[in-house]
User: What shape does this take?
Amino acid sequence: MNEIDDWSKVSLLEVRVDRLPRWHRPGLLCIGDAAHAMSPIGGVGINLAIQDAVAAANLLAEPLRAGAVTDALLAAVQERRTFPTRVTQAFQVFIQNRAIDPLMQGVDVRRPPLAMRLLDEFPYLRRFPARLLGLGVRPERIRTPEVTAG
Assistant: This one.
C-alpha cells in the first residue's frame, strides 16, 4: 500500500458473466473466455475453456485435416458447449446472489442459507457441487481417431 503514490492509476476489475450470442464466423471459433466470460467464483473458467477446446478438437480435427470445416461444424461446437456454460454461469450467479452479496451487504449470517445447512447436515451431498465445479456439467473426453502411418 505504501508503494502506491497515485490512486487514480489503480482500478478494480469488472466481473462479468456473459456469453457471445454467436461464437463463430467463417474461419473463426471463439472458445473459453473469448466466448463466455465467467465469474471467478469456483475458479471454473479454465475448466470450461479446456472442455471447450477438447470439444472443438473432437468435432473439428478430421474436418481440419481434410480442409472441410464448415460453419455448421463451428456451430456444432457452440451448440455442444452452450448448455454447460449456461448451467455453470447460473450456479456462479446463484452463489453470488445468495451467499457473497448478502455477506458484502452486512446481512446477519448467524444462520447460513438452506443449501449450506443441507451440505453441513448431509455430507454426502457435498459431492454434487464438488463434481459441478471439478468436472463440469458435460465433461469432455479426448477422442483421438486412429491415425495410420502411410
Summary: The radius of gyration is 20 Å. The first strand starts at residue 18 and ends at 19.
